[in-house]
Design brief:
The complex is a heterodimer of chains A (288) and B (306). Chain A is mainly alpha-helical and 288 residues long. Chain A is built from 14 helices and no strands. Chain A starts with a helix and ends with a helix. Helix content of chain B is 35%, strand content 31%. By secondary structure, chain B is an alpha/beta fold. The two termini of chain B are 29 Å apart. Chain B has 11 helices and 14 strands. The chains are: A mainly alpha (288), B alpha/beta (306).
Chain lengths: 288, 306
């Protein structure tokens, strides 16, 4: 109950942050404007629109989660609102979790709004064009993703894989928010901003680090390999959720999309849980 | 009377960014009795806020023992019975005072009906009923201080920590808050108040402690600390020759525009001084027991002249 009280207050305050609202409005406007793109023929246009839309959501989500979460706890210390809260019968873990949940709720609403606008726009564009070949493309895309049953049925105007794209973007920033909140327990907001950005960039190129770590090239020192192996293993693998290109260009290799999605969501939950436990343990002994 | 706060050998060290160590509180021992108003004084940087934060469980002691209402500081059960008003409190400014008080009341897990009743009562107590639905961003410093007082009384606490409760208040609000603190004592509550408003502390506190450089420099009953054995004599129309005769009989004397202010040590030296003044046709204005002000005691203590 205390966690929820703190989360609600955090959410109501965050939703009033003008800077976040500006990003949200600009992102939604850009998604809508991207539909006016009619240069390369229907199939290519749809590819560009999907690609651009998902990229805008990704970019806005990255900025929103960083700007929002980097200040969640430090601002409470700076404004001394933390003192009036922690001097009441509030456990420190309740405070950290309440702040995190409030931040995640804000992120959820922002990404959901952008995602809904994006999916509606793409669906409307597909429906208005009435182009059967485009639906054929969608079916072949599903087939390539291993969804035989989906391809066998009559093609639909609504492309459910877009939902997965938005969900996976959300998963990335769900994890990133936890990373930022974890760092905010012991880093200053500026250092946290750069540290979390670095974690995101490294985690988004996890496949590269893995390939170096697994390389059979003897010129690479075992120490270097161990370092890249550790980077690949320790830093959250955001690369797992980068399936936009696979959605837009149907060369997806997973045998079952459902399993891939479920594993992705479970991974995100586990990583967030681990980070929150670590944040709570650190904050419990932190002097404020 | 049982102790509301017990501090034994408290020490708090901070590591400085340059690698050194700063001792904010050093071997502090004090006891605050239940039902008293305890003034916790000291110049800036003396360690007052650090001590309060340790008592609230926001900081952890480097050494020593701290008990609040018989339990270790920071204990969640104890927090249900205490409250805190920080210096220059800040609140979520997008909320109204009613919303912020309801938010804090929720942290005490008060029932919805109890919460509403308590919030309404406190809005009335601190005089904010009219502005209850106004966003806090539009509140003045004095009004925010009243909100701070209200949030500190939500749980009907047994022990209240007040850090500069009258700072930034206009004279009316100032008097209201002082009266409120006295009311708390009348209700049997313990008030631990840190303030630079020494006049307030002198007026309301039962006992005071003065902290200098993290160490306890003085502690005691306000009345006892401020009472002296000296008698103050004030007379007008006094000339230089009379002053010269009075000087050997008193501890201190000062002549300004014909008015003499002298401090005699006891009644034995008082009568000869009065005789001298009357013989020299001076006009005797007053003869009173001398009472030190808390401000004088504070300054003397901090400067080491006590």
């Amino acid at each position: 109950m205390v966690i929820w009280t703190i989360a609600k207050t955090t959410f109501s305050e965050a939703m009033r942050k003008k800077i976040l609202n500006v990003f949200l409005i600009v992102a939604v406007a850009m998604i809508v404007l991207s539909l006016s793109f009619t240069q390369l023929g229907f199939q290519s246009d749809m590819t560009v629109v999907k690609s651009l839309g998902l990229f805008i959501i990704l970019l806005a989500g990255f900025i929103i989660s960083l700007i929002l979460c980097v200040s969640l706890i430090p601002t409470e210390v700076e404004r001394r609102t933390l003192y009036t809260i922690l001097s009441k019968p509030v456990n420190r873990y309740e405070f950290v979790l309440g702040k995190f949940i409030g931040g995640v709720l804000t992120l959820t609403v922002n990404i959901a709004l952008m995602g809904i606008v994006f999916i509606i726009m793409v669906t409307v564009k597909a429906a208005l064009s009435g182009n059967v070949s485009s639906l054929g493309t969608q079916a072949s895309s599903m087939l390539a993703m291993g969804d035989q049953a989906a391809a066998a049925v009559k093609p639909r105007i609504f492309d459910p894989t877009l939902l997965i794209g938005v969900l996976f973007i959300y998963c990335q920033f769900f994890i990133l928010s936890a990373v930022v909140v974890f760092f905010s327990v012991f880093l200053t907001p500026t250092v946290n901003f750069f540290a979390s950005s670095a974690v995101y960039v490294i985690g988004s190129t996890s496949a590269v680090w893995q390939s170096i770590a697994d390389s059979k090239n003897k010129d690479i020192s075992p120490l270097v390999k161990a370092f890249y192996w550790a980077m690949h293993r320790i830093i959250p693998n955001f690369d797992y959720y980068n399936i936009q290109n696979k959605i837009i260009h149907p060369h997806f290799e997973a045998r079952s999309m459902e399993v891939y999605v479920v594993i992705g969501v479970l991974k995100a939950l586990l990583i967030v849980m681990f980070l929150m436990i670590a944040a709570v343990l650190l904050f419990d002994r932190k002097e404020v | 009377m049982a102790a509301a706060i017990e501090i034994q050998g408290l020490m708090k060290r901070f590591k400085s960014p340059m690698g050194g160590e700063l001792i904010a509180v050093n071997d502090l021992n004090l006891e605050v009795k239940e039902g008293e108003i305890f003034g916790f004084l000291g110049p800036n940087g003396a360690g007052k806020t650090t001590t309060i934060k340790i008592l609230l469980g926001l900081l952890f002691p480097s050494a020593g023992k701290v008990k609040v209402l018989g339990s270790p500081a920071g204990d969640i059960e104890v927090k249900k019975r205490i409250s805190y008003l920080p210096e220059s409190p800040y609140f979520y400014e997008h909320m109204s005072v009613r919303e912020i008080l309801e938010f804090y009341a929720s942290l005490f897990k008060l029932e919805k009906d109890v919460k509403k009743k308590r919030v309404d009562e406190l809005l009335e107590t601190v005089g904010l009923s009219e502005a209850a639905d106004k966003q806090l961003r539009h509140y003045s410093k004095g009004m925010l201080q009243r909100v701070g007082i209200a949030q500190a009384l939500l749980n009907d606490p047994d022990l209240v920590f007040l850090d500069e409760p009258t700072s930034g208040l206009d004279p009316i609000a100032h008097a209201d808050i002082c009266n409120l603190i006295l009311d708390l004592r009348a209700q049997g509550k313990t008030v631990f108040v840190s303030s630079h408003q020494l006049g307030d502390i002198e007026m309301i506190a039962n006992r005071v402690a003065i902290l200098v450089g993290g160490k306890l420099a003085m502690m005691g009953d306000v009345k006892e600390l401020l009472t002296t054995k000296q008698v103050e004599i004030i007379a007008d129309k006094v000339d230089e020759q009379t002053v010269e005769k009075v000087k050997p009989l008193v501890d201190e004397c000062e002549l300004h525009a014909g008015r003499l202010t002298a401090y005699a040590q006891s009644e034995e030296s008082l009568n000869p001084v009065i005789d001298l003044l009357l013989k020299s046709n001076a006009a005797l204005v007053s003869v009173n027991p001398r009472r030190r002000t808390l401000e004088k005691l504070f300054v003397d203590t901090v400067r080491g002249g006590h």
